[in-house]
Amino acid sequence: MTTHYRDITIDGTRISYREAGSRDNPTLLLLHGFPASSFMFRDLIDRLADRFHLLAPDYPGFGHSDAPDPKEFTYTFDNLTDVVERFTKELALDRYALYLQDFGGPIGFRLATRHPDRVTFFVIQNANAYEEGLPDSFWTPLRAFWNDPSPANRAAIREAGMSDAALQWNYTHGVQDPTRIDPDSWLLQSALLNRPGNKEAMLDLLYDYRTNPSLYPEWHAYFRTHQPPTLITWGANDEIFPESGAHPYLRDLPNADLNILPTGHFALEDHADEIAAHITRFVHRSET
User: Is 284 designated active site?
Assistant: First the structure.
């Protein structure tokens, strides 16, 4: 199946996206994480394009989308959700499933609570919605930044989260065989982050991440009320969003299909086959 690389302009910002599969098939909207882009879904798209209509947008500041200056575009999760919501409207998407990873979680859950009638099912992959998934072992420096966004704390997060070593670690920590991980992934992220002003935009988003935990009760209420069919495929060795954040979903979504994989944060890098198989199985089971 052919993947098309398209652009659409939303409120003056060019949004790039990948599209594959027939629009006659169910739509699966793929929402990427940090500091990634739609590139992270390349292997999954190849494996699912015969069964789904797949759309993977790059948020403003990510991938091949425009990266507006932070003085001209406010980098918050509310604003990124507004862009994705407009994206679905411009492409006339009335019903869609959501694949959520990392930053895709708070964007997708905002979108779902705005339009619960549009979401057909979730695939949640290392995307957190519970306090248990924000361990002090990783999140203490970010909490310090949230409490005091001083230049010193901002510089510390810039180095910890966006240095070349940190970008490589994001992709290789927790995997069983690092030689399977394509270095193009972190080299691409490094090139994009080094665009003028882009690291400052990402720091604005990392600071705004503090707004997400206060929304967890709203998201949990949405889960309990609407019981969206949910498949969870989670990298067990992720130090950013560890396995402890996967199991609490079952409190509010007791019928969720939970699968723990022996890998790290970007599970699609070495487990795209398994995740594609889980999605196919899950959807087939839901239809029978």
Answer: no
Q: Contact, 192 vs 198, CB < 8 A?
A: yes
Decide the pairing of beta strands 96-101 and 53-57.
unpaired
Query: What token pair was written down for 170?
Result: 């994001």
CA distance 106 to 216: 9
Q: Are strands 230-235 and 119-125 parallel, antiparallel or unpaired?
A: parallel
Q: Which residue out of 220, 265, 271, 278 is catalytically annotated?
A: 265
Given a cut of 90, whether residue 287 has pLDDT beyond it is no
Identify the bridge partners of residue 230 per DSSP, sorted by sequence position.
122
| Sheet of 3-10, strand order | 3-10, 13-20, 53-57, 27-31, 96-101, 119-125, 230-235, 257-261
Q: Given a cut of 90, is residue 285 above it in pLDDT?
A: no
| DSSP E strands, 12-82 | 13-20, 27-31, 53-57
Backbone angles phi, psi at 53, to 5 degrees: -95, 110
- pLDDT by residue (tens digit) across 102-157? 999 999 999 999 999 999 999 999 999 999 999 999 999 999 999 999 999 999 99
Rounded-to-integer distance, Cα 166 and Cα 241, Å: 16
Q: Measured between alpha carbons, how far is 253 from 271 in angstroms, rounded to an integer? A: 24
Confidence of residue 286 (pLDDT cuts 50, 70, 90): confident
Backbone torsions φ then ψ of 69, nearest 5 degrees: -60, 140
Is the bond into 35 cis (omega within 30 degrees of 0)?
yes
